[in-house]
Amino acid sequence: MNKKEKNTRREIKLPRAVYITICVLPFVSTALFYMLRSNTVIMDRAARNFSAPVRSSLGLISSLYPFSLTENIGVIAGIWLIYYIIKTIVVTARRREKLKILSRRLLTVAVVFLYAWSLFCWLWNSGYHAPGFADKHGFTGKNVTTENLIDVTRMFAAKANELAPLVKRDENGEYIENRNEIFTISTNIYNNVFIEFPQLRGSLYKPKSMVFSWLMSRTGYTGIYFALTGESLVNTRAPAFLLPATIAHELAHQRGVFAEDEANFVGILACVTSGYTAYEYAGYLMGLMYLQNALFPADFLAWTNIRDSLSVEVNKDLRDNYNYWQSQKTVKTGIELLDSILTTVTVTVSDAVNTAYDSFLKSQDQELGLKSYGACVDLLIEYFCENGIKDY
Fold first, then answer.
1. What is the distance, to the nearest Å, from the Cα of residue 366 to the centroid of all Cα atoms in its chain?
2. What is the pLDDT of residues 278-304, one digit of tens each?
3. Contact (CB, 8 A) for 161 and 314
4. Which residue in 263, 274, 277, 241 sits closest to 159, CA to CA?
5. Coil vs helix vs strand at 175
6. Please, which of 52, 93, 118, 196 could form a disulfide with 29 given CB 3.0 to 4.6 Å?
């Protein structure tokens, strides 16, 4: 590098005060969130006046691209981090002021991470600490009895039996609804929910299929919503008959339903009131699975009677769903030693991901952690009992 280039580099160098501000800002923003997150009024305002419009704008921008920005950003970030670590080791080894150089480079990583985490806190985590969907719409979860659970489970079973033969199947009874069509009509499924719950009104952006669906399956997940891009991403390797319910769940997150149990409830409600057979069936089948899981320990005899009432098609789909997720716990290459090693790695990674996500949810005052996914049962019972089971 000649002297002229060096001088040019010095001229565009930012003042120390600017660097300090850039470094301090994410620390202050993150600290401010943790200081204020117990204040539900402030968190509610942040969720409504900052999070909602920003996430919607990000969703609009992301919708312009057919591919997943979230996955691409994740891959780029991973490659950059590996490169940065290697470069840090090389540069630190070559220089004399090793501690100073290492500190600066570690600070860079910390600042980048905190910018992302701070934005994520205000865009997404704020919603966990604001009044949720159930609070805002008067759901109390009280007076939910075993009899109510039996009645609603029986209704969901009857509706699943009714709709199961109406969805497209091949000669072997395999579900063959067109996945592209399921994605295409997804932004229309909330029309009736918006009428009943106008506070949820807003733009919906079509979910995207994940390139890393195989990885999602191995870790046991069917979809994600990423607030930093406003994208809903769906695992398209999972059983297709529940794909509409997964899409509806992720769209609920788009509309500011943060808690997993509430997103499950709103997603199921959107499905069963959508007017689209594939979505209706997925909603009733998904709800039936959660209701049966709750009924099993509450009244085994009633659970047995309802299970025995399920049609051939419903039983096949439930069995296929169970078998699929069981198959994701093992790896079969035909080489016994390799299979054993890869299976152990798969289970270990899956457990680690689940533990991390469970801890994350609990750290955001979601006391049930991963179990919150099944906590939609009380909401389903309360809603359908109050709105008349026979009407559905």
1. 14
2. 999 999 999 999 999 999 989 999 999
3. yes
4. 277
5. strand
6. 118
